[in-house]
Design a protein that fits this description.
This protein is of the alpha/beta class. 36% of the residues lie in helices and 17% in strands. Strand 1, helix 3 and strand 2 form a beta-alpha-beta unit. This is VWA domain-containing protein.
Length: 113
Protein backbone atom coordinates (compact mmCIF):
# COMPACT_ATOMS: atom_id res chain seq x y z
CA UNK A 1 0.00 0.00 0.00
CA UNK A 2 3.04 2.22 -0.04
CA UNK A 3 3.59 1.96 -3.80
CA UNK A 4 2.11 3.84 -6.71
CA UNK A 5 -0.29 2.12 -9.11
CA UNK A 6 2.48 1.94 -11.70
CA UNK A 7 4.86 0.24 -9.24
CA UNK A 8 2.17 -2.22 -8.16
CA UNK A 9 1.12 -3.30 -11.66
CA UNK A 10 4.25 -5.39 -12.15
CA UNK A 11 3.04 -7.73 -9.38
CA UNK A 12 -0.10 -8.66 -11.29
CA UNK A 13 -0.50 -10.98 -14.24
CA UNK A 14 -3.43 -11.53 -16.55
CA UNK A 15 -5.05 -14.92 -16.92
CA UNK A 16 -6.16 -16.38 -20.21
CA UNK A 17 -9.05 -14.78 -22.00
CA UNK A 18 -12.27 -16.71 -21.97
CA UNK A 19 -13.95 -18.58 -19.15
CA UNK A 20 -10.98 -18.71 -16.80
CA UNK A 21 -11.81 -17.09 -13.46
CA UNK A 22 -9.25 -17.80 -10.70
CA UNK A 23 -11.42 -16.24 -7.99
CA UNK A 24 -9.96 -18.25 -5.11
CA UNK A 25 -6.38 -17.45 -6.08
CA UNK A 26 -7.18 -13.77 -6.55
CA UNK A 27 -8.93 -13.60 -3.18
CA UNK A 28 -6.02 -15.38 -1.48
CA UNK A 29 -3.60 -12.84 -2.96
CA UNK A 30 -5.78 -10.02 -1.60
CA UNK A 31 -5.99 -11.66 1.84
CA UNK A 32 -2.21 -12.15 1.94
CA UNK A 33 -1.69 -8.52 0.93
CA UNK A 34 -3.97 -7.32 3.72
CA UNK A 35 -2.28 -9.60 6.27
CA UNK A 36 0.86 -7.52 5.82
CA UNK A 37 -0.95 -4.19 6.21
CA UNK A 38 -1.46 -2.17 9.38
CA UNK A 39 -5.04 -0.99 8.76
CA UNK A 40 -7.53 -1.11 11.63
CA UNK A 41 -10.24 -2.61 9.44
CA UNK A 42 -9.60 -4.79 6.41
CA UNK A 43 -12.34 -5.36 3.82
CA UNK A 44 -12.21 -7.03 0.41
CA UNK A 45 -14.94 -6.38 -2.14
CA UNK A 46 -15.42 -9.36 -4.45
CA UNK A 47 -17.24 -8.42 -7.66
CA UNK A 48 -18.00 -11.50 -9.74
CA UNK A 49 -20.42 -13.40 -11.93
CA UNK A 50 -20.53 -16.06 -9.21
CA UNK A 51 -18.83 -18.92 -11.03
CA UNK A 52 -15.20 -19.34 -9.98
CA UNK A 53 -13.12 -22.03 -11.62
CA UNK A 54 -9.51 -23.11 -12.18
CA UNK A 55 -8.27 -21.79 -8.88
CA UNK A 56 -5.51 -23.00 -6.61
CA UNK A 57 -7.70 -22.27 -3.57
CA UNK A 58 -11.41 -22.78 -2.94
CA UNK A 59 -13.54 -19.82 -1.93
CA UNK A 60 -14.26 -21.62 1.35
CA UNK A 61 -10.54 -21.94 2.17
CA UNK A 62 -9.96 -18.27 1.53
CA UNK A 63 -13.05 -17.20 3.47
CA UNK A 64 -11.85 -19.22 6.48
CA UNK A 65 -8.35 -17.72 6.37
CA UNK A 66 -9.81 -14.22 6.05
CA UNK A 67 -12.21 -14.76 8.94
CA UNK A 68 -9.47 -16.15 11.20
CA UNK A 69 -7.40 -13.04 10.51
CA UNK A 70 -10.16 -10.46 10.94
CA UNK A 71 -10.54 -9.69 7.25
CA UNK A 72 -14.05 -9.09 5.93
CA UNK A 73 -15.02 -10.21 2.43
CA UNK A 74 -18.06 -8.58 0.86
CA UNK A 75 -19.66 -10.05 -2.25
CA UNK A 76 -21.20 -8.28 -5.22
CA UNK A 77 -22.82 -10.69 -7.65
CA UNK A 78 -23.33 -9.50 -11.20
CA UNK A 79 -26.52 -11.08 -12.50
CA UNK A 80 -26.27 -13.80 -9.84
CA UNK A 81 -27.62 -14.12 -6.33
CA UNK A 82 -24.85 -16.42 -5.12
CA UNK A 83 -21.13 -16.99 -5.35
CA UNK A 84 -20.23 -20.66 -5.14
CA UNK A 85 -18.53 -21.24 -1.76
CA UNK A 86 -19.41 -17.76 -0.49
CA UNK A 87 -21.75 -17.77 2.47
CA UNK A 88 -22.06 -14.37 4.11
CA UNK A 89 -24.68 -11.87 5.13
CA UNK A 90 -22.88 -9.10 3.27
CA UNK A 91 -23.83 -9.68 -0.33
CA UNK A 92 -25.64 -7.69 -2.97
CA UNK A 93 -26.84 -8.66 -6.44
CA UNK A 94 -26.58 -6.26 -9.37
CA UNK A 95 -28.66 -7.24 -12.40
CA UNK A 96 -28.02 -4.07 -14.38
CA UNK A 97 -24.29 -3.34 -14.71
CA UNK A 98 -25.00 0.34 -15.34
CA UNK A 99 -26.05 0.45 -11.67
CA UNK A 100 -22.89 -1.27 -10.39
CA UNK A 101 -21.19 1.87 -9.05
CA UNK A 102 -24.37 2.98 -7.29
CA UNK A 103 -24.92 -0.42 -5.65
CA UNK A 104 -21.27 -0.72 -4.57
CA UNK A 105 -21.43 2.79 -3.10
CA UNK A 106 -24.56 1.85 -1.12
CA UNK A 107 -22.84 -1.30 0.12
CA UNK A 108 -19.77 0.64 1.24
CA UNK A 109 -21.95 3.07 3.20
CA UNK A 110 -23.88 0.16 4.75
CA UNK A 111 -20.70 -1.58 5.88
CA UNK A 112 -19.00 1.51 7.24
CA UNK A 113 -21.99 2.87 9.15
Amino acid sequence: FDQSVEESLSKFTLGCKGYYTPTGSALMAAVDLLLDSQFDRKIIFLITDGYPNKSEFTIGEVMEKAKCNGIEIVGVGIKTDEIIGFETDTFVTVDDTSLLSIEVSKLVHQILS
